# Entry
Amino acid sequence: MSEWLLQPAVTGVTADGTHLLRARVYYEDTDAGGVVYHANYLRFAERGRTEYLRDIGVSQSELSDAEGVYFVVRRSEIDFRLPARLDDALEIQTVIAGIKGASFLVEQSISKTGVDGYLVKVVSTIACVDRKGRPVRVPQSVKSKLDRHDGGGL
# Structure
């Protein structure tokens, strides 16, 4: 049995502010050749960001219900280096690289478990908007949690 399968699920923020989420490449993530379809890396990145926020105590559903604030991806840059393939074990590392008035910068790398270097790097600007889609400041309750875990980038 693969040693990766024997390891406990890891999701959490380390002392240096890096969040780690483990994932597996499923058939649904791939194209006909068994290679992860390029747009699906954004899905892995979204899962990493969502789990990061959840692990530092930010509930996006509670934030939208209570304060009418939503997170939206304003911009993403993706650097593809190597492909992931069907059944690969992946690690998604997420760090907050900066916080501005109405947005924060998230840097993520997706790598194969046990292999040095990244497959894909994603840098996204996450904006805060109200119910009408207008920019609003990052709520102080969120900003204080992001500040405590600001990793300064990968």
User: Anything to note?
Assistant: The longest strand covers residues 70-80. Strands lie at 11-13, 19-24, 70-80, 89-99, 103-112, 120-129.
